Amino acid sequence: MPASPSPERQQGSPNSQGGSEHHVEPTIEIEDAIAADNDSTLGEEPDQSHVSLSSSIMAYREENGRRYHALSSGKYVLPNDDAENDRLDLQHELYVRTLHGELALCPKARGAKRVLDIGTGTGSWAIDYADANPEAEVVGVDLSPIQPSFVPPNLIFEIDDLEKEWTWTNKFDFIFARMMLGCFQDFPQIIKVAFDNLEPGGYLELQDMSLPARSDDDTLQPDSYLSQWCKRCFEAGQNLGRPVFPTTEYKNYLAAAGFEGIVEVQRKWPTNAWPRDKHFKELGNWTRANIAGGLDGLSIAYFTRGLGWSPEETRVFCAHTRKDMENPKIHAYWPIYFVYGRKPLTAE
After folding, report:
1. What is the CATH number of the domain that holds 121?
2. Which PANTHER family match (predicted)?
């Protein structure tokens, strides 16, 4: 980890008056070499000791060839099998590269005392934070027991449903949540509960992708498979009672919960290697592996449960969508939001 704060963190520190800041990334330049037709084929999707797990938690659900969580079955639509876990680890690396080696942007990115990682998944972020901050006590929570057994001594993993009552008696000074799109029935309420579980002066940071995908030069058309895939995700989430809450509203959710000094930073994930800039080209390659490579797992339960599609219909649609994602003539990107705020020192 770098010894000094990144430019993102320096630029994004909240002011002492508790105002709000907003930082947007500029338009990405297109790689000159991308002029040839893209004829790529339709891609293919490429016990922990701290927690006592009951047999019911381990009784995973098998559906359409993928494995899903057992605790509060059906709440989370993404798989928890090896293929998805590999994708989650890749996605963690993509986020770290997006921030040039940083794990977070808020002032608690280093030096927090007690940290909660909401929806920890494979635990990659929590492990890295615990390693980098050995004095911190780090707790990672998820519906699935898919975390490794050998972890830093200052890290524990807990299996729990955070839509139920939070039962921690000691408050946190840093709560972190990443990629929570479609995970909760009422995400603003989760933010309020997080506020209540922070000590005064503590920080909440949210990192998330925004739908739909966008382009700055209209190469992504509304009738494209990629645009339609985004639209179907909104429909499926609504039908399942787990709406894709707009990431653009996160700063307002934090304000409504009582946070101050709210900062919003926007970044971009190109859908493939179409950018000219070396950094964005690298992010595009990682994004292609993350989203295009994992598209079937991201979609199969969403569309079969939420839209009533057959697995075959879903896979064919994903194959066409993947081709759009991999087409360097479509200069699309995913907006990525980093939003954080501070609980007032005067709050209880």
Report:
1. 3.40.50.150
2. METHYLTRANSFERASE, S-ADENOSYL-L-METHIONINE-DEPENDENT METHYLTRANSFERASE
Specify whether the CB–CB gap between 167 and 158 falls below 8 A.
no
- Residue 2: inside a domain: no
Tracing tokens 């006590």 back to the chain, one arrives at 137
Per-residue pLDDT band at 71 (split at 50, 70, 90)? low
Q: In 10 A of CB 59, how many CB atoms? A: 11
C-alpha to C-alpha distance for 33 and 18, rounded to whole angstroms: 46
CB burial of residue 277 (10 Å; 0-12, 13-18, 19+): middle
The pair of three-digit structure tokens given for residue 177, joined into one six-digit string: 């949540």
User: Containing domain of residue 267, as a range?
Assistant: 7-342
- CB-based contact 121:88 (threshold 8 Å): yes
Q: Give percent of the chain with pLDDT exceeding 70.
A: 83
Q: What is the pLDDT of residues 140-163, one digit of tens each?
A: 999 878 788 899 999 999 988 899
Three-state secondary structure call for residue 137: strand
DSSP letter at 108 equals: G
Per-residue pLDDT reduced to its tens digit, 72-97: 655 667 777 888 889 999 999 999 99
Question: Tokens at residue 113, please?
Answer: 């005392």
Bridge partners of residue 265, in order along the sequence: 23, 338
In contact, 142 and 119? CB cutoff 8 Å: yes
The closest of 298, 348, 278, 254 to 83, measured between CA atoms, is 298
Of the given ranges (29-33, 128-132, 244-248, 324-328), which has the lowest mean pLDDT? 29-33
Q: Establish if 323 belongs to a structural domain.
A: yes
Residue 198 is assigned to a structural domain of this protein: yes
Alpha-carbon distance of 147 to 157, in angstroms, equals 7
pTM higher than 0.90, yes or no?
no
Residue 191 lies in a domain: yes
Could you tell me how many helices (H) and strands (E) the chain has, helices first?
10, 11
Q: Residue 279: which residues within 8 A CB-CB, separation 6 or more? A: none
Strand ranges (DSSP E) for 51-136? 61-63, 66-68, 114-118
